[in-house]
Design goal:
The protein is mainly α. It is built from 8 helices and no strands.
Protein backbone atom coordinates (compact mmCIF):
# COMPACT_ATOMS: atom_id res chain seq x y z
CA UNK A 1 0.00 0.00 0.00
CA UNK A 2 1.57 3.29 -1.10
CA UNK A 3 -0.79 5.82 0.49
CA UNK A 4 0.60 9.11 1.79
CA UNK A 5 1.68 9.34 5.42
CA UNK A 6 -0.83 11.35 7.52
CA UNK A 7 1.73 13.98 8.44
CA UNK A 8 -0.89 16.28 9.94
CA UNK A 9 -0.85 13.98 12.99
CA UNK A 10 2.77 14.85 13.65
CA UNK A 11 2.06 18.26 15.21
CA UNK A 12 0.07 16.67 18.01
CA UNK A 13 2.52 13.78 18.38
CA UNK A 14 5.46 16.14 18.67
CA UNK A 15 4.01 18.21 21.47
CA UNK A 16 2.44 21.18 19.65
CA UNK A 17 5.44 23.39 20.44
CA UNK A 18 5.38 26.65 18.54
CA UNK A 19 8.96 27.87 18.83
CA UNK A 20 10.95 28.55 15.68
CA UNK A 21 13.17 25.51 16.35
CA UNK A 22 10.19 23.20 16.89
CA UNK A 23 8.52 24.46 13.71
CA UNK A 24 11.71 23.88 11.70
CA UNK A 25 12.14 20.33 12.99
CA UNK A 26 8.49 19.40 12.46
CA UNK A 27 8.49 20.90 8.97
CA UNK A 28 11.67 19.02 8.07
CA UNK A 29 10.16 15.74 9.28
CA UNK A 30 6.94 16.36 7.38
CA UNK A 31 8.82 17.20 4.19
CA UNK A 32 11.07 14.15 4.38
CA UNK A 33 8.17 11.78 5.05
CA UNK A 34 5.67 13.44 2.74
CA UNK A 35 7.65 14.90 -0.13
CA UNK A 36 11.05 13.21 0.03
CA UNK A 37 12.53 10.63 -2.28
CA UNK A 38 11.81 7.69 0.01
CA UNK A 39 8.73 5.56 -0.55
CA UNK A 40 6.28 5.86 2.38
CA UNK A 41 7.11 2.39 3.72
CA UNK A 42 10.87 3.08 3.46
CA UNK A 43 10.44 6.34 5.34
CA UNK A 44 8.33 4.71 8.04
CA UNK A 45 10.67 1.75 8.52
CA UNK A 46 13.56 4.19 8.80
CA UNK A 47 11.62 6.38 11.22
CA UNK A 48 10.92 3.33 13.37
CA UNK A 49 14.59 2.31 13.44
CA UNK A 50 15.69 5.85 14.27
CA UNK A 51 12.97 6.45 16.87
CA UNK A 52 13.88 3.17 18.56
CA UNK A 53 17.55 4.14 18.50
CA UNK A 54 16.95 7.49 20.24
CA UNK A 55 14.27 6.04 22.53
CA UNK A 56 11.44 8.20 21.19
CA UNK A 57 8.35 6.05 21.90
CA UNK A 58 5.88 8.50 20.35
CA UNK A 59 7.55 8.50 16.95
CA UNK A 60 8.12 4.74 17.14
CA UNK A 61 4.43 4.12 17.89
CA UNK A 62 3.40 6.42 15.04
CA UNK A 63 5.65 4.52 12.62
CA UNK A 64 4.40 1.12 13.84
CA UNK A 65 0.76 2.18 13.46
CA UNK A 66 1.32 3.50 9.96
CA UNK A 67 3.26 0.39 8.91
CA UNK A 68 0.46 -1.83 10.21
CA UNK A 69 -2.06 0.32 8.28
CA UNK A 70 0.01 -0.35 5.14
CA UNK A 71 -0.03 -4.08 5.89
CA UNK A 72 3.74 -4.34 6.16
CA UNK A 73 4.55 -7.81 7.51
CA UNK A 74 5.08 -7.81 11.28
CA UNK A 75 8.48 -9.46 10.94
CA UNK A 76 9.63 -6.51 8.78
CA UNK A 77 8.34 -4.04 11.37
CA UNK A 78 10.06 -5.91 14.20
CA UNK A 79 13.26 -6.18 12.18
CA UNK A 80 13.22 -2.42 11.59
CA UNK A 81 12.89 -1.75 15.32
CA UNK A 82 15.58 -4.29 16.17
CA UNK A 83 17.94 -2.94 13.52
CA UNK A 84 18.62 -0.13 15.99
CA UNK A 85 20.10 -2.67 18.40
CA UNK A 86 22.39 -4.51 15.99
CA UNK A 87 23.58 -1.21 14.52
CA UNK A 88 24.21 0.24 18.00
CA UNK A 89 26.49 -2.71 18.71
CA UNK A 90 28.30 -2.50 15.37
CA UNK A 91 28.54 1.30 15.25
CA UNK A 92 30.12 1.46 18.67
CA UNK A 93 32.54 -1.37 17.97
CA UNK A 94 33.66 0.03 14.61
CA UNK A 95 34.03 3.52 16.07
CA UNK A 96 36.40 1.98 18.64
CA UNK A 97 38.33 0.21 15.90
CA UNK A 98 38.58 3.40 13.85
CA UNK A 99 39.65 5.52 16.83
CA UNK A 100 42.47 3.25 17.97
CA UNK A 101 43.74 2.90 14.41
CA UNK A 102 45.35 -0.50 15.05
CA UNK A 103 43.34 -2.47 12.53
CA UNK A 104 45.70 -5.47 12.48
CA UNK A 105 45.26 -5.94 16.23
CA UNK A 106 41.48 -6.07 15.83
CA UNK A 107 41.14 -7.69 12.40
CA UNK A 108 38.25 -9.96 13.41
CA UNK A 109 35.34 -8.26 15.14
CA UNK A 110 34.29 -11.54 16.70
CA UNK A 111 30.72 -10.28 17.01
CA UNK A 112 27.79 -12.31 15.77
CA UNK A 113 25.89 -10.43 13.08
CA UNK A 114 24.11 -13.07 11.01
CA UNK A 115 20.98 -10.89 11.04
CA UNK A 116 22.66 -8.78 8.37
CA UNK A 117 23.07 -11.69 5.94
CA UNK A 118 19.43 -12.30 4.94
CA UNK A 119 17.13 -9.66 6.42
CA UNK A 120 13.40 -10.41 6.10
CA UNK A 121 12.76 -6.98 4.60
CA UNK A 122 15.44 -7.46 1.95
CA UNK A 123 19.07 -6.42 1.83
CA UNK A 124 18.66 -2.98 0.25
CA UNK A 125 15.95 -1.89 2.68
CA UNK A 126 17.96 -3.13 5.64
CA UNK A 127 21.01 -1.26 4.33
CA UNK A 128 18.89 1.91 4.24
CA UNK A 129 18.10 1.51 7.93
CA UNK A 130 21.71 0.62 8.71
CA UNK A 131 22.92 3.79 7.02
CA UNK A 132 20.39 6.02 8.80
CA UNK A 133 21.18 4.55 12.25
CA UNK A 134 24.90 4.77 11.51
CA UNK A 135 24.48 8.48 10.71
CA UNK A 136 22.63 8.91 13.99
CA UNK A 137 25.36 7.07 15.90
CA UNK A 138 28.16 8.89 14.09
CA UNK A 139 30.13 5.87 12.86
CA UNK A 140 32.25 7.13 9.97
CA UNK A 141 33.36 3.72 8.69
CA UNK A 142 29.84 2.28 8.87
CA UNK A 143 28.39 5.31 7.09
CA UNK A 144 30.92 4.96 4.27
CA UNK A 145 30.36 1.21 3.93
CA UNK A 146 26.56 1.42 3.91
CA UNK A 147 26.53 4.41 1.55
CA UNK A 148 28.75 2.52 -0.90
CA UNK A 149 26.59 -0.62 -0.64
CA UNK A 150 23.43 1.40 -1.28
CA UNK A 151 24.92 3.14 -4.30
CA UNK A 152 25.99 -0.23 -5.71
CA UNK A 153 22.44 -1.51 -5.20
CA UNK A 154 21.01 1.40 -7.20
CA UNK A 155 19.75 3.57 -4.36
CA UNK A 156 19.73 7.17 -5.56
CA UNK A 157 21.84 9.94 -4.06
CA UNK A 158 18.59 11.73 -3.15
CA UNK A 159 17.37 8.71 -1.20
CA UNK A 160 20.69 8.40 0.62
CA UNK A 161 20.61 12.10 1.39
CA UNK A 162 17.04 11.83 2.73
CA UNK A 163 18.06 8.93 4.98
CA UNK A 164 20.86 11.06 6.47
CA UNK A 165 18.56 14.06 6.85
CA UNK A 166 15.87 11.92 8.49
CA UNK A 167 18.45 10.71 11.03
CA UNK A 168 19.47 14.29 11.77
CA UNK A 169 15.87 15.45 12.20
CA UNK A 170 14.95 12.57 14.53
CA UNK A 171 18.00 13.35 16.67
CA UNK A 172 16.94 17.00 16.75
CA UNK A 173 13.37 16.10 17.75
CA UNK A 174 14.58 13.86 20.58
CA UNK A 175 16.81 16.66 21.83
CA UNK A 176 13.97 19.16 21.57
CA UNK A 177 11.63 17.00 23.60
CA UNK A 178 14.25 16.78 26.36
CA UNK A 179 14.27 20.57 26.57
CA UNK A 180 11.91 21.94 29.23
CA UNK A 181 9.08 24.16 27.99
Amino acid sequence: MNTPIPIEQLDELLGNRETAVARDLKLNLKRLLGEGSLQPVEGLLTLLALATSVEHPTLAAFARTELKHREVPENHVQEAAESAAIMAMLNHYYRFKHMVGKHDDYANAGLRMTALAKPAMGKERFEMLALAVSVLNGCENCIKAHEETLRSAGTTVNQIHDLARLAAVVKGLKTLLQTPV
